[in-house]
Amino acid sequence: MKSTRPLIAVAATLIVLGPVGWWWQDSLLPDAYSIMSMGHVELGGAAGGDHAGHGARSITELVADRNRPADVTVTLTARHEGDRYTLNGTTPGPTITARAGQLIQVRLVNADVTGGVTLHWHGVDVPNAEDGVAGVTQDAVRLGGEHVYRFVAPEPGTFWYHSHQVSHEQVARGLFGALVVLPAQSSDVDTVAAAHLYGGTHTINGSSADLRVAARAGQTARVRVVNTDNGPMSVWVTGTPFRVAAVDGTDLHEPGEVRDVSVLLTAGGRVDLLVTMPATPVRVQLGGPLSVVLGSGDLPAAPQPKQALDLLSYGTPEPLGFDPGKPDRTFRYEIGRRPGFVDGRPGMFWTINGHLFPDVPMYIVREGDVVRMTIVNHSGEVHPMHLHGHHAVVLSRDGVRATGSPWWIDSLNVADGESYEIAFVADNPGIWADHCHNLKHAADGLLAHLMYEGYTTPYVLGPASGNEPE
What we know:
Elements: H1 5-27, E1 40-42, E2 57-58, E3 72-81, E4 84-87, E5 96-99, E6 103-110, E7 120-122, E8 146-152, E9 157-162, H2 167-170, E10 176-182, E11 189-198, E12 201-204, E13 211-213, E14 220-227, E15 233-238, E16 243-247, E17 250-251, E18 262-265, E19 270-276, E20 282-286, E21 291-294, E22 329-342, E23 345-352, E24 355-356, E25 361-365, E26 370-377, E27 383-387, E28 392-397, E29 400-401, E30 408-409, E31 411-414, E32 419-425, E33 431-436, H3 439-443, E34 447-452, E35 455-456
Parallel strand pairs: 1-25, 2-35, 3-6, 5-10, 11-14, 13-21, 22-26, 25-34
Antiparallel strand pairs: 3-4, 6-8, 7-9, 9-10, 11-12, 14-19, 15-18, 15-20, 16-17, 16-19, 20-21, 22-23, 23-24, 26-32, 27-31, 27-33, 28-29, 28-30, 28-32, 33-34
């Protein structure tokens, strides 16, 4: 009897550890793999859909007019300086400014960033080959190399750019900057306020001091707030009423004047606040200890207002240009969390529709489709969801339909327990990331893709490729 006890113990151990070992083995990613081979197909209720891309058109053809000369030309040189990364010696990098319809050309040079770099144009619906996602739309720019991006500036708005190679590290440590498309008639005062945490230190435009901006009584001032961090922040104005003129680079329709409310700004998102200057200074407070101070003199900081502005009912309706009530495809993006393995690493990981990375959805669409998507979060944490290459309109939150201005987003704050319905037109072909912009979450598998039928990519991911977008 005693002699059988070790055998029983070994058998019990194998029963327990056998499945664990299989899950571990099954989670391992190849040294090099195509995004086209990842995950499982989601067709959204439509027939057909080619996931493998056989006989498809390469996304490398999806570029701006090659024969058109550039209107705005910029060179950005990436360097590793101490514990930060810089672009042209600064972080944030230079603000790129253009007018709607101008062709922007940016030459990215990698001076000494050993891990490689790219630039993603966050919120700009660029042609797919210009999207800057390593291993999906290009190879990371290696040490001493360079890459040229070309795209047409969209309608006026506030956007930003950042690395999409090892992005959870490179963005946090400084590889980002603002992109502003100016309106035909500018405000009297127009300033960018990019909020960023460097190792726990709050900054605006790279400085740990308040941003002071000259403004006179009667002038209109636009403050373009960009949240470059991983979590949401609240913004509020003291000293005068204000309007939320734009969200994520899109103007709101007939935004009313408000006061004593805060505005929630998700990670990666942008909000343009518009004020008419009184004779006294105005303070735009950016969540933490820092503010944008407009005008001369000083105004004490005020506590965050108890009420938050609800963009679901702010402003007045206007036509969308399509009917979201008659979608061609309907998708679900349900975020959860459970223990498991991702590429051999054990831990608590994010799930999409119950699956761990890389068994994540590949949402398949055809050009021209009206797409409706429900995003549900029961993961225990907030997620700023970011769809590349498209702007979507918010239809409802927790079953309550939108009644205000069309709320167009590319970055959406989805709190734990919330659900949103959004819709968009599939009008920008290619292969697009659809991920959480808490970039640490994306690195832990909170990443899916929107793929147009009939397109493929020659680029690959994995250690052997050197392409690690998250």
